[in-house]
Specification:
This protein has 192 residues and is mostly helical. It is built from 7 helices and no strands. The protein has helices at 3-8, 16-36, 43-69, 75-98, 104-126, 135-152, 159-191.
């Protein structure tokens, strides 16, 4: 095997970024179990839920960095990473709904947007178009994660900051969802 052919070989799915992604998926039910202990009313368990959520979110940042910096991007990672992200966020939102800290309408808006854009991306991919995450989409993820973390922390003084960040997250979630569709429509029109 020549040096050039070694560089074109796809990386194995058995690599650290993918292991971190799988750990994040496995961590989702653990996070939810911890959050729902004692009906979500125990400060002790809520702090543990906060820690588990923060660690799982840190693996998201780390696995992406490692995959890009070490050229370990795999098809498995491209599929599993967004699934892990959405599963964790959905579990967090539903968990916050169940324990009464967050109204269901917020979860519904986020789930409809995430599900709709994911389905739309799959159709675009089948047509040979890759729709990358936008800067707004990345901001949406950061805001959602930060809002969830604020709601998880059992500190009364975080009530209003948590709500301000969550409302900002919902607004950015909706705006970026619409922007994806507008950009796609504009790209389709210009290519005709």
């Amino acid at each position: 095997m020549t040096a050039n052919s070694a560089n074109t070989t796809a990386p194995s799915n058995w690599n650290l970024p993918n292991v971190l992604t799988v750990l994040r998926i496995i961590g989702v039910p653990i996070f939810l179990w911890v959050l729902l202990q004692e009906g979500g009313q125990s400060g002790y368990w809520r702090w543990w839920a906060f820690v588990v959520f923060a660690l799982l979110m840190a693996t998201d940042k780390l696995d992406g960095h490692l995959a890009r910096s070490r050229n370990l991007i795999t098809d498995f990672g491209k599929i599993a990473d967004p699934i892990a992200d959405k599963a964790l966020m959905l579990a967090a939102l539903v968990g916050l709904n169940i324990i009464g800290l967050l109204p269901w309408w917020i979860t519904a808006i986020i789930v409809v947007r995430e599900g709709g854009i994911t389905i739309w991306r799959m159709f675009a991919l089948r047509q040979g178009r890759v729709v990358p995450a936008s800067k707004g989409g990345k901001l949406k993820t950061v805001l959602q994660s930060f809002a969830v973390a604020l709601f998880l922390a059992p500190l009364a003084w975080l009530f209003w900051p948590a709500w301000i960040v969550m409302i900002a997250a919902v607004i950015v979630t909706v705006v970026t969802g619409v922007q994806y569709l507008v950009d796609s429509y504009s790209a389709d029109k210009s290519s005709q």
